[in-house]
Amino acid sequence: MRVLGIETSCDETAASVVALDGTSAPEILSNIVLSQIEEHAAFGGVVPEIAARAHVEALDGIVEAALADSGVALGDIDAIAATAGPGLVGGLIVGLMTARAIAAAANKPLIAINHLEGHALTARLTDGLDFPYLLLLVSGGHTQIVAVRGVGDYQRWATTIDDALGEAFDKTAKMLGLPYPGGPNVEKTAASGNAARFAFPRPMKGSAQPDFSFSGLKTAVRQAATAIAPLSDEDVADICASFQAAVADALGDRVGRALNRFRQEFPGKADPALVVAGGVAANVTIKATLDKLCAQAGFTFVAPPLKLCTDNAAMIAWAGIERLRAGMAEENAADFVPRSRWPLDSISAPMVGSGRRGAKA
Ligand code: KG4
Ligand code: ZN
Prior knowledge:
By secondary structure, the protein is α/β, with parallel strands linked by helices. Helices cover 43% and strands 17% of the residues. A five-stranded mixed sheet has the order 3-2-1-4-5, sandwiched between helices. A hairpin with a 4-residue loop joins strand 1 (2-7) and strand 2. Helix 4 (115-127) crosses helix 11, helix 6 (182-190) packs across helix 8 and helix 7 packs antiparallel against helix 8 (233-265). Bound molecules: 5'-O-[(R)-(carboxyoxy)(hydroxy)phosphoryl]adenosine (KG4) and zinc ion (ZN).
């Protein structure tokens, strides 16, 4: 099985070919990601119209390059999988329509993929994980804990009631005058800071409600910064380090709860695993916290290579393969309409405000 994947839901234009021969591990034959960060940096965030235009300009070339790199001719591809949501609708239209055109011209099936499903199934591509497992998705637009029970069978156990975690990093960076994207810059600046200087709140810590919250922490950071302004470089570093420590602590508390719930709901599961995905998974302090938590709880901690944690098309191609082999590609009819909002789990009630502000998925 060879599937061409296309991803255009936010500010990465990406295409990839993934193959599965049924006897050995899946293989990523090509994986091309073009980031638009430079085009958006001047605005301090992703501008949807600029993103959509940049996708239009780049996608043809990226698809061609992904096919050329893979060494597979379009005629030998089994299906085209494209992200159809959630995300910025302009980019989704570009990606899905391009995929539809290629599928029609080459007479191949088209599979519409939920971007979050791509993140959720990546650990099966990289580590061959068996269902069920737990996913922590921490990106610019999403902060969720999902029980991944099977292909198309996801249950959201927690989400953010306000900001996404990556968004909290980005807003904190902006507040402190650090450049976009904020997450990596906050982490870099925090390295020389004193994490004990500011006692920032640990939102939701100890709460019986399983969800996340970060806007109160952001406000606490603003108040602390305002109180000691003008800020020296040392002040900024201390605020970053204290913010990051608060985030790691709060995240650890929330994830710890989910690990306990997983044990209760899947008591027979030998070698349970927690998978992390999304751009915030690049953060070394956060990763170390999760690693330690998993070791204590007897979970395997799976952090796929960063290139496959952040937005990419290999995860979309892989989700296409998973759907094809599960006989679940047909439900994605060729007339699928892109959805800017598309929860992975139709059972859990939508959380007011969740995922609404972040541009990324
Ligand atoms: O997964 P991603 O590349 O895009 C999506 O949101 O789908 O995630 C981007 C987010 C941004 O908010 C960025 O600031 C954050 O991930 N991020 C980080 C780090 N690297 C990226 N946050 C904290 N520490 C990092 N090292
Ligand atoms: Zn994503």
